[in-house]
Amino acid sequence: MKISVKGPIINDGDQWIYDWFGIPATSPTKVSNAINKAMLNQTTDITVLINSGGGSVFSASEIYTALKSFSGNVKVEIVGIAASAASVIAMAGTVVEMSPTAQLMIHNASTSAAGDYQVMDQTSDFLQNVNKSIMNAYTAKTGKDETYLKTMMDNETWMTAQQALEHGFIDKIMFEQEKSAAANTNHSDLVNGELPQEVLDKVRNQLLKDKSLNTMNSVTPPTPNKLENNKEDNPMDLDKLKNEHPDLYEKVKNIGFEEGQQAENTRIKEIEELATPGNENLVQAAKFENNSTAAELAVAIVKAEKAKGANFLQNVQKDAEPLNEVPGNQTVAGQEKDADVVASFVGIWKGGQ
């Protein structure tokens, strides 16, 4: 049975986002599911294909542990690159082979920190401890001592298949009968393909934001590419989100509250800007009873004003009817002038209809 370790090494919570974008990535659960399937099928041998630039050292440690715990034989084949955290996973193999065109790289762990000198000192201590943890995997495979490995990690050591074999990181070069044509690449700025955390957060929040928190019955992350060796659908409903990812649940809830509050403030403000004398009841109902938008209120106001205009026109016409009954030779100059004004006003209203 074959297990692929490709793309960045990521945590379980981000796997579905990479799957949605169709980006190869490997999380501990993805590997564990494959191992469990092998055990259910009573498979005694598994082959792990590695082509990864690294990623989370703690996820790599979990994958390393899972592979080392497998009761059968674990054959590792480095087919492209096993750099950084991915090199730790490679050390889990009972037998480790490497393509003559592949590369293996080991270096120190890195992170980012901000604060005073105490924070920096603590971060330095933390990273040095992580480096020692990584060395344990390298020591178990190569037999090299800590001082030797520390120098290699400090120098960010890139190895061809031949060099990796000489240092004891691998047991065999694949296709040994063919002459190696591997080139030693020294790109210390290799991009391992891992999505920036802000991109992951933005995608996750945007997808969840598109669902109304008040009416949402379930949230099912889009997964056009199913997790390898995991054919079951795993819908993410609110209860599951709350129980399995409490921090994310609280974050989503807070985002929904803040955006809802902001949207309501904007709605009230836009409605108040439409307030005009005579329409107080409509404005009040729109704000607190009908939950109307400003656009809906504007339509209601236009209809109300039109109705007022129609009523006014009818009243004017009704008031003008007695003038039509007055004989023309009995009208006086003032009455004729008044009639002209009324007629003119009526004409204006008719023209506006």
Helix and strand sequence: EHHEHEHEEHHEHEHEEHHHHH
Give helix % range: 40-55%
**Largest sheet composition:** 7 strands, mixed
Provide the residue-averaged pLDDT. 79
Q: Please identify, by name, the CATH architecture of the largest domain.
A: Alpha-Beta Complex
Which fold name fills CATH's third level, the topology of the largest domain? 2-enoyl-CoA Hydratase, Chain A, domain 1
Shape: elongated
Task: Tell me the number of structural domains.
Answer: 3
CATH superfamily heading of the largest domain: 2-enoyl-CoA Hydratase, Chain A, domain 1
The poorly predicted ranges are 179-191, 212-219, 223-232, 329-336, 348-353
Specify the number of helices: 13
* N-end to C-end Cα span: 81 Å
Q: Based on DSSP secondary structure assignment, what is the total number of beta strands?
A: 9
Task: Round the Cα radius of gyration to an integer and report it.
Answer: 37 Å
Class derived from helix and strand content: alpha/beta
Strand content: 5-15%
What's the CATH C level of the largest domain? Alpha Beta
Organism: Lysinibacillus pakistanensis
GO biological process, one term: protein quality control for misfolded or incompletely synthesized proteins
Pfam families: CLP_protease
InterPro entries: ClpP (IPR001907), ClpP/crotonase-like_dom_sf (IPR029045), ClpP/TepA (IPR023562)
Q: What's the helix and strand layout?
A:
Blueprint: E1 2-6, H1 15-21, H2 28-40, E2 45-52, H3 57-69, E3 73-83, H4 85-90, E4 95-98, E5 103-106, H5 117-142, H6 146-154, E6 157-159, H7 161-167, E7 172-173, H8 197-209, E8 218-219, E9 236-237, H9 238-244, H10 246-272, H11 280-288, H12 294-324, H13 333-352
Parallel strand pairs: 1-2, 2-3, 3-4, 3-5, 4-7
Antiparallel strand pairs: 5-6, 8-9
